[in-house]
């Protein structure tokens, strides 16, 4: 990992910088990566993607939650999003982070909030994906996920290909909807692959394993070479398009999204929204430092437009 990446990942975990960034958000060009800071903006952008034939999974952003009150407020905001999806008939579902709803407060509080969300979504026939976070939260996350899946079927989770344990997790959860990602957290060499090629190879391996198991697979990558290899594998093994989707982040590779839709594949966009965007934003920049160029370009364009 480069020094720049390491530095950006560290900055993403700063609560103080999170507070400062909220004030500077518009100047930082966040709308290239964030689908709005309120429900009205979110709904507008969902309609725009749905009209292109693209589904969405919505992440109500929020980190640095260490108090029960904050976890309860985050839960209420997520329930509001579920209402909006249902009432407006949007082609979308929910992605949640357990730390946002109390995992760093108390496991029982987190489980209670997660149950509220998943039960409410289940009543409205809406799927909930539980995002997997940094390694220190994985075991406690799985404990809660296992309790929830014993009662509900509208649940899936995320497997991070960068982690050594990922293959075991895929095989142990072969009947669950899984989103396969490369991994957005800085982890040590003791628990995680460090080289891009190693992570890419494991990503392909895990995706193929889960596709063959027959459960639904969300293939989360922007890499057209990986997508090409997976399409070849899917065709070679006669895997139905109803069993998978290609998933990308909001604001990335829209032309590739449209090309996949044109070919008849399901495409879903991960749509982060809300005022608590800082940690997510910094990790996207850290994952792909070339995005700094886009950020600077947008910032200077806005500056010169106002100045001249």
Automatic annotation (TrEMBL):
Principal EC category: oxidoreductase
Pathway(s) annotated for this protein in UniProt: Amino-acid degradation; L-proline degradation into L-glutamate; L-glutamate from L-proline: step 1/2
Flavoprotein listed as a keyword: yes
Catalytic activity: L-proline + a quinone = (S)-1-pyrroline-5-carboxylate + a quinol + H(+)
EC number, as in UniProt: 1.5.5.2
UniProt keyword terms in alphabetical order: FAD, Flavoprotein, Nucleotide-binding, Oxidoreductase, Proline metabolism
Keyword Nucleotide-binding listed: yes
Positions of the Proline dehydrogenase domain: 44-287
Cofactor: FAD
Name assigned to this protein: proline dehydrogenase
The species this protein was found in: Staphylococcus succinus
Lineage, broadest ranks: Bacteria, Bacillati, Bacillota, Bacilli, Bacillales
